[in-house]
UniProtKB/TrEMBL annotation:
Gene Ontology biological-process annotations: AMP salvage
Gene: adk
Species annotation: Hominilimicola fabiformis
The protein's enzyme class: transferase
Protein name as annotated: Adenylate kinase
Subunit field text: Monomer.
Reactions this protein catalyses: AMP + ATP = 2 ADP
Length: 212
């Protein structure tokens, strides 16, 4: 199954992507993780992306498209994938379609802005592998330590209220219109993402036609 996972920043895309990845035995391809890795390594593309991300803005289409296309050509995506964080604009969605990549379903996690702002203040991620956590709803087994690789959990610099509001505005203006694009193609399904983790996971399974 080839999935696109979308929703506002902090909707739980990373967590639900990981759950679906295990259940369907396919990889989650996160542009956010790829970009932050590039920033940490201070590669050319990382330096370009860093300014946009820290300002709560979208990274330019040409940068993202080149990263994603290259990643989807790798052997581990042959039997399916979950795209998390791409496409983020209608232009990117059209570019993905034109590239010949087959998409089976587009899942949109629905969460209100107020809930997003509250949720992001509790979000953490692994400084090594990028695994997502939330100190309220998805705690690690050991405080501050990644369950997977034992890396240190950190709070992202862009998870501050003013930047969060900017990111939400960008999402509503530039990313949300993608829903209409994929709805016309008959690919869009939605799931409520404000519930507890296990309930949201159930909502997602129902939306995708999987057993709950």
């Amino acid at each position: 199954m080839n999935l696109v996972l979308m929703g506002p920043p902090g909707a739980g895309k990373g967590t639900q992507g990981e759950i679906l990845s295990k259940r369907l035995d396919i990889n989650t391809i996160s542009t956010g993780v790829m970009l932050r890795t590039a920033i940490k390594e201070q590669s050319e593309i990382g330096k370009i992306a860093e300014k946009y991300i820290n300002d709560g803005k979208l990274v330019p289409d040409d940068v993202i498209v080149s990263i994603v296309k290259e990643r989807l050509q790798k052997p581990d995506c042959a039997k399916g994938f979950i795209l998390d964080g791409f496409p983020r604009t209608t232009a990117q969605a059209e570019a993905l379609t034109e590239s010949g990549v087959k998409i089976d379903k587009v899942l949109s996690l629905e969460v209100a802005d107020e809930a997003i702002i509250e949720r992001l203040s509790s979000r953490r991620e692994c400084s090594k592998c990028g695994a997502p956590y939330n100190i309220i709803s998805n705690k690690p087994e050991t405080e501050g330590i990644c369950d997977k690789c034992k890396g240190e959990l950190i709070q992202r610099a862009d998870d501050v209220p003013e930047t969060i509001k900017n990111r939400l505005n960008v999402y509503h203006e530039q990313t949300e219109p993608i829903k209409a694009y994929y709805e016309k193609l008959g690919l869009l399904v939605t799931a409520k993402g404000e519930d507890k983790l296990e309930d949201t996971t159930s909502n997602v399974a129902k939306a995708l036609g999987l057993e709950v």
